[in-house]
């Protein structure tokens, strides 16, 4: 079973991730993880912390000579700002430290986990909550996702993303372009939108929000290509892959909605225009180099289902869309109540972004990659990459033989 845990606080010494269940023989390097960590930090509208933190991973276990061992993988991302927080976030006692050094927070911020977390964990200092609920934790998840991407990529799958909306400025995806072409175009944009003209409008909207002391949310798409049919299952609610992917994306901080394929549009569209018709061509049969995307007998001309039917992948790309709320920490603070005095105050301000939708899309890639990797190993699992490859090729051979 593939699983992971992360630990660490936003202003603590660093973030740690442990991944268990990764097979042996998979190529994995710190450089490949760092590439995704760098992508998480870019994006027009990001705040001052991105100028402080230049995230780098240190793999401390589970990898030898660039190849996974099959044992747990441990990864650490240091917080470079730790020196300024040694007292406030000290593990041990702090003696006679003053209030300025302790940096206690008693003013919960609307839209954050602050007040609910303080009630749940019985603390009068909201810093005990905000340090862990912070989106800084996603750096560890991106590191985990980079390992998951290495696994699915080994078997012909890719996980890509792009931004489709920021602050009401929307880009309508042109499906004639391949996901990889859209991804390459998005990587050239500092808002990660594939369209140059729309990217300029998004930047302008972010500038307006920054000048007003406000923040913006938006929406992004995550697409997984090269997915074989049969990942997930229809037989139990918790094995349905669309439900698992929705949970994974909803777990990303500030995400408030997730769609699969057409999503909410199915509610207003006749069934004749929703369901993907099935076709067959003998010329499309055969798996070519050994992986599913090359061709197969059955195919669809549309992908309104987003690659998932009945909780299972159907061989088309998985298409996910998620909505991110505006960052709740504002430089024009909203009203709140001081927990110590019960008096009204303007909410506390931590360093914040005006817009982080571009970064959220990268985090969502990691979340989706890990979930797909889990489903893939559940079906084709083995202790080594070679064993998984044998299982996978046998499955595809059977599909070509029986359904072509």
Which descriptors apply to this entry?
single chain; 11 helices; alpha+beta; 404 residues; five-stranded antiparallel beta sheet; 19% strand; globular; four-stranded antiparallel beta sheet
Strand-residue proportion:
15-25%
Main sheet strand line-up: 8-7-9-15-10
- Broad shape: globular
Rg (C-alpha, Å) = 23 Å
What is the ordering of alpha helices and beta strands?
EEHHEEEEHHHHEEHHEHEEEEEEEEHH
**Percent in helix:** 25-40%
- Overall strand count: 17
Structural class: alpha+beta
**Nearest-integer average pLDDT:** 92
Main beta sheet: 5 strands, antiparallel
Number of helices: 11
Uncertain ranges: none
> What is the first-to-last residue Cα distance?
32 Å
Walkthrough of the structure:
By secondary structure, the protein is an alpha+beta fold. It is 32% helix and 19% strand. It has a five-stranded antiparallel sheet. It has a four-stranded antiparallel sheet with strand order 1-2-6-3, covered by helices on one side. Strands 4-5 form a two-stranded antiparallel sheet. Helix 1 (30-41) packs antiparallel against helix 10 (357-380), helix 6 packs across helix 10 (357-380) and helix 9 (241-250) packs antiparallel against helix 10 (357-380). The longest helix has 24 residues, at 357-380. The protein is globular and about 75 Å long. It starts with a strand and ends with a helix. 42% of the residues are buried.
């Amino acid at each position: 079973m593939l699983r992971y845990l992360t630990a660490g606080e936003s202003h603590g010494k660093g973030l740690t991730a442990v991944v268990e269940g990764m097979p042996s023989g998979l190529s994995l390097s710190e450089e490949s993880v760092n590439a995704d960590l760098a992508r998480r930090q870019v994006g027009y509208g990001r705040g001052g912390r991105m100028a402080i933190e230049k995230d780098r991973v240190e793999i401390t276990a589970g990898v030898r000579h660039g190849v996974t061992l099959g044992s747990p993988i441990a990864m650490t991302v240091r917080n470079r700002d730790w020196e300024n927080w040694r007292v406030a976030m000290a593990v041990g006692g702090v003696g006679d430290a003053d209030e300025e050094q302790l940096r206690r927070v008693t003013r919960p911020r609307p839209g954050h986990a602050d007040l609910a977390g303080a009630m749940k964990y019985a603390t009068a200092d909201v810093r005990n909550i905000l340090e862990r609920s912070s989106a800084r934790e996603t750096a560890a998840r991106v590191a985990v996702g980079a390992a998951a991407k290495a696994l699915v990529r080994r078997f012909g799958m890719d996980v890509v993303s792009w931004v489709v909306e920021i602050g009401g400025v929307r880009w309508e995806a042109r499906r004639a372009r391949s996901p990889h072409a859209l991804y390459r175009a998005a990587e050239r944009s500092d808002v990660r939108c594939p369209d140059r003209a729309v990217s300029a409008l998004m930047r302008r909207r972010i500038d307006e929000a920054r000048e007003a002391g406000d923040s913006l949310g938006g929406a992004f798409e995550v697409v997984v290509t090269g997915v074989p049919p049969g990942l997930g299952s229809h037989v139990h609610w918790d094995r349905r892959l669309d439900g698992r992917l929705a949970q994974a994306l909803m777990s990303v901080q500030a995400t408030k909605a997730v769609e699969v394929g057409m999503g909410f549009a199915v509610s207003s569209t006749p069934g004749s225009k929703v369901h993907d018709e099935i076709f067959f061509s003998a010329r499309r049969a055969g798996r070519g180099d050994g992986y599913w995307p090359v061709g197969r007998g059955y195919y669809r001309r549309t992908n309104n289902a987003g690659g998932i039917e009945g909780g299972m992948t159907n061989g088309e790309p998985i298409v996910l869309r998620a909505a991110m709320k505006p960052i709740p920490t504002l430089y024009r603070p909203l009203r709140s109540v001081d927990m110590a005095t019960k008096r009204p105050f303007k909410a506390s301000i931590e360093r914040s972004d005006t817009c982080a939708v571009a970064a959220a899309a990268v985090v969502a890639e990691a979340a989706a990659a890990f979930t797909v990797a889990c489903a893939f190993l559940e079906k084709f699992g083995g202790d080594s990459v070679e064993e998984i490859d044998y299982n996978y090729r046998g499955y595809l051979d059977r599909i070509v033989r029986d359904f072509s």
